[in-house]
Specification:
heterodimer, A: about 120 residues, mainly beta, 4-stranded antiparallel beta sheet, B: mainly beta, 5-stranded antiparallel beta sheet, about 55% strand
């Protein structure tokens, strides 16, 4: 398996522009997570989906952020309009639903999308 | 509020030494913990996990210790190698309804291994 695939790896944009980050989770995984990583705040959970349904979006900073998962193999995180304080590395991760006591809670992360908003 | 935190932001060691990275947690209801390693330019990767019914678990060159009395977790790396240089996170896991765990990550500790 290729693992979690994110695109773009790097994005530089100007304040006010729309940014769309994309994620392809590992095939068969039931959960998908979006995290944001900054030096100041570390890894913050933004939103997660279970079977394509958003479960908890309480970590989404504000209405400028939105996430969708139209099918089991694709998710997007959109920022509109973007601001300099949105500059960060955005990670997508996926995991399997626990089935019995033997499963781990391991998250499989993509390599991240580094966003710079000027 | 409840949180997961790390005692040391940076740990420098010599190659071959043993490394110990510490983590404190405050949610007594947490029953599952994972250590992740993040190399530069990459996403975090699973190293080892431990459930609250255990106090020690060993992997290849790594050992995780859990002290529920003082809510403390540690990751021990034996014979540290330059390739171990990375940021290490402990993640406190909360069971989500319907399955899976939802981790909350600590701030991370940067491990620097000098040859």
């Amino acid at each position: 398996d290729a693992g979690v695939i994110q695109s773009p790896r790097h994005e530089v944009t100007e304040m006010g522009q729309e940014v769309t980050l994309r994620c392809k989770p590992i095939s068969g995984h039931d959960y998908l997570f979006w995290y944001r990583q900054t030096m100041m705040r570390g890894l913050e959970l933004l939103i997660y989906f279970n079977n394509n349904v958003p479960i908890d979006d309480s970590g989404m900073p504000e209405d400028r952020f939105s996430a969708k998962m139209p099918n089991a193999s694709f998710s997007t995180l959109k920022i509109q309009p973007s601001e300099p304080r949105d500059s960060a590395v955005y990670f997508c991760a996926s995991s399997l639903e626990r089935r019995g006591g033997q499963d781990t809670g391991e998250l499989f992360f993509g390599e991240g999308s580094r966003l710079t908003v000027l | 509020g409840e949180s997961v935190g790390l005692h040391l932001p940076t740990l420098s060691v010599q190659e071959g030494d043993n490394s110990i990275i510490n983590c404190a947690y405050s949610n007594s209801a947490s029953d599952y913990f994972i250590w992740y390693k993040q190399e530069s330019g990459k996403g975090p990767q699973f190293i080892i996990d431990i459930r609250s019914n255990m106090d020690k678990r060993q992997g290849q060159r790594v050992t995780v210790l859990l002290n529920k009395t003082v809510k403390h977790l540690s990751l021990q790396i034996a014979a540290t190698q330059p390739g171990d240089s990375a940021v290490y996170f402990c993640a406190e896991n909360i069971s989500a309804s319907g399955g899976s765990y939802i981790p909350t990550f600590g701030r991370g500790t940067s491990l620097i291994v000098h040859p």
